[in-house]
Amino acid sequence: MTTNDSPKSLRPFMTLWVGQVFSLLGSQLVQFALIWWLTQQTGSATVLAIASIVGLVPQVVLGPFVGPLVDRWNRKWTMIVADAVVALSTLALVYLYWAGGVETWQIYVVLFVRALGGAFHYPAMTASTSLMVPPEHLTRIQGLNQILNGGMSIAAAPLGALLLSLLPMEGILFIDIITAILAIGTILIVDVPQPQRGKEDSSAEDQPTYFDDLRAGFRYMINWRGLLIMAGMAMLVNMVLSPMNSFMPLLVTEHFDGTAWHLGLIEAGFGVGILLGGLLLGVWGGFKKRTYTLLIGLAGIGVSVMLVGLAPASLFGLALVGMLAGGIMSSLTNGSMMAIFQAAVEPSMQGRVFTLIGSAATAMMPLGLIVAGPLADIIGVQTLFVIGGLITIVAGVVGFFIPSVVNIDKDRQVHAAVTGTGIPDPVGPTLETVEGF
User: Fold this and answer.
1) Residue ranges making up the domain that contains 262
2) Is residue 97 part of a domain?
């Protein structure tokens, strides 16, 4: 087993990261193409809703059970196999399109398999980052990820539309297979470190079972007050803000009397904001104490959402500014939060922790829609934006008054001593607890 040797430079990780850029681009193109195909073939909102649910099920339902496997398995080969399975499912779909026999249920199956591959790949990639990147660069790397997300938000849809006009469906799907091969190639040439297991795991006669690891992941989360509160904040904000994306077309058409062009501007503005925020985070790196960057960003998201909700019908530009600012603050918040988790959580526990948090936060999205839909009909979409923004502001401000949140980095050793997680002695900068993040 490869141990967590400190990397000499960022080059191995950046090689891996570039491969994932290609893979993500291919995935975004396929996602756009398949959803558009379903829209054209069926014109059914129910079909599109089922497609969205199918894509969420693996992370929400299977996520907590995937985490222990990611922590037990070789993370390099977990990513390779996940990418390969996704590519093979796409290849099967290429054949079906070529043969002219594609049915809606087959699209559902492929979307499910792709989401299942992502449920394994994402935590493996995220958990490996903390072992390949020195702590002082974690926030900047997350800034790069936000730049990537923002760029994809801006470019994927128009590029997908362009390719649909130039290529048959199987041609677009084949692009995804090529990008997956490129991603697998970069993983193969890079050494992906494995985390050291705790001292209690060293006896060959008393190795923990899968369910021991599963229970350990839950205990790790529940017993760490700061981590648990931060996870709860992510769930709350996801539940409150996720409906805003679904209701944005209503706000644009009913309040601003806008068209599809106005909606496109709003979405592009948010994507540009994510890109700019990622660039800012990548260059600046955030405050020394990362929780400050996170909480200010969170409150900033709330202010931006309120600005969109409060914008008069005659000031569409003000709503556009709000979305741009929201994108910037979203990058600062999400990038800082992931950097905090990667730096604070024991590397051998990261697969479990990340999947637990991700599953819980994602599960809040349909719950938020269930609550917000009828509420929006009663109080109006604008008012819902204002309330959601206000709740988010309060969450960000309150966080400053919770010591276990602000000092989550310092609480790491205390948590390890209390829970007996067996954090190994630091080996190089990737396992150091840096004072005053």
Assistant:
1) 210-422
2) yes
